[in-house]
Amino acid sequence: ARKKPTWLKRRGALVFNLAVFAVVALLLGGAGMLAFGPWAIPFALVLGAFAANAVHIAFVWERAVILRFGNFSRIAEPGLYFTIPIVEQIALHVDQRINATSFLNERALTSDLAPVDVDAVVFWMVWDPKKACLAVEDYEHSASLVAQTALRDAIGRASVSNVVMRRHQLDQELQEAVEAKVTDWGIAVLSVEIRDIIIPKELQGVMSLEAQAECRKNARITLMEAERDVSAILQEVAETYSHDEIAL
After folding, report:
1. Which of 14, 75, 129, 142 has the fewest Cβ atoms nearer than 10 Å?
2. Are residues 47 and 25 in contact, defined by beta-carbon separation less than 8 angstroms?
3. What separation in angstroms does the CA of 96 have from each of 3, 58, 60, 177, 186?
């Protein structure tokens, strides 16, 4: 499903800012009209805009990165917070909840050049809002690209049979590879899970024949090892009997 736009997720805070603007503009506009006439209305609107730009709300899962004259100033905690209009700007509202980035039917080539489609999901969260804002332009998109590249690299280092058999090991390798790149962006990778690996039908037939041949080989080896053990026992018995004419 497509994610909601940022303004839609923060519509409650937007309504609050509009309410602040309306209340300040109406109060100052009404008082100004009584004292100075209609000329007070533009000033009331400007002051209402300043007030709306000075009072903000951060949700419980958010941290607001505030800049002052373009330099980092502070991190605003959840709840009501204030900024100085024009002097301070809100660079980013960082969502610190756990995010899930999924890759559906991601096509990758194994080390033996076999194409496979992989479904995977990466669970991650922002632990340092300052780094997420200042170290990378779009931390969410960048983390998604890093995970996608790491997934293709991990698949490309293994053969098609190893990809199927080493799924859990690939999960761990992917988590370490992604986390090594995104830690400097203030992002922690909680887990990487490969949900499904789809192999082309023609390769499925070949792998089935290969597995059957491997089973037949193992069965023959087991039979020959059993015959070797039996012959060794018979030889030992024969050597024992050879020293006892009555037993022989």
Report:
1. 14
2. yes
3. 16, 12, 9, 22, 11
Kind and range of the H or E run holding 233: helix 201-241
User: How do residues 173-206 score in pLDDT, each as one tens digit?
Assistant: 888 889 888 999 999 999 888 888 877 666 655 5
**In whole angstroms, how far apart are CA 202 and each of 72, 115, 166, 213?**
57, 11, 21, 17
Beta bridge partners of 219: none
Contacts of 157 (CB under 8 A, 6+ apart): 111
Angle of CA points 184, 189, 195, to nearest 5° = 145
Q: Are 32 and 17 in contact (CB under 8 A)?
A: no
pLDDT at 1 over 50: no
- For residue 179, give both structure tokens: 């986390």
The answer to whether the CB of 184 falls within 8 A of the CB of 142 is: no
Residue 5 DSSP class: P
